[in-house]
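Q: Hi! First time doing this. I have a protein sequence and I read that you can turn it into a structure. Is that right? Here it is:
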Amino acid sequence: MSGLSREDAFATLLWLVESGADETVGEQSINRVGPMQRSPEPHAPPSAARSGAAPAPSPTSPKTAAIPETSRSVEAAERLAACCRTLADLKAALANFEGCELKRHATNLVFADGNPAGGIMFIGEAPGGDEDRQGLPFVGRAGQLLDRMLVSIGLNRQNVYITNIVNWRPPGNREPTPEEAAVCLPFLHRHIELANPKLLVLLGAVPVRHLTGLQGILKFRGRWENYRLRSGNKVPVMLTLHPAYLLRQPAAKRLAWKDFLTIADKLQRLGLA
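A: Yes, that's right. Below is the predicted 3D structure, encoded as structure tokens:
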């Protein structure tokens, strides 16, 4: 903790203890990026090869069929999101939208929580089981840790705004697929425009990938980027670690603490603290 004052060092230790840094065993990690198992390609019947007859057309694979279907859903999402003039309009539009497959497996739409007028917007990955049941983002163990992180820099859910890349829980708490994220992104972009934050915080690799194009959160965390609104205005964006990752890797909490101190400093300079 070189470079920190005695007071900052004490605050760091306090936050680490309160946020569970005394854990010695993390949760079971999940491989969210492993290759998908593919079924072997069907072979043409031997009789067709011997006779020279043209083989019967093979049925369209689900992956191939999903591409135009995803494109149509993205276009529908873009049209619907563009018509929304308020956050209430946007939430209603999402509730009535049928173009995202995740909705078919979820219990509730998870739109947002907190104060959209607070000036700072946090964006995570996707709802989990607790969020799906309650219809609110970040209410499980990761959300409880996020709340403690916010309090450590003088924030809470009354002065921040929280949402996710996708608005429905992926089955098994897996990472949302690129297609699922693509369908939800038009709503998220409109969400950001309507909330009009002065500062964005991206929690984890998934929002960083989809909103900045950068790959690898550990490489880029602690870095400031810019998000450009349709008006042309730029919003400063902090890239940091997802609280769920911190629960699995408690040693990384020191990195998140450093990022949150940077966020607190930025809020002061923006007049939001």
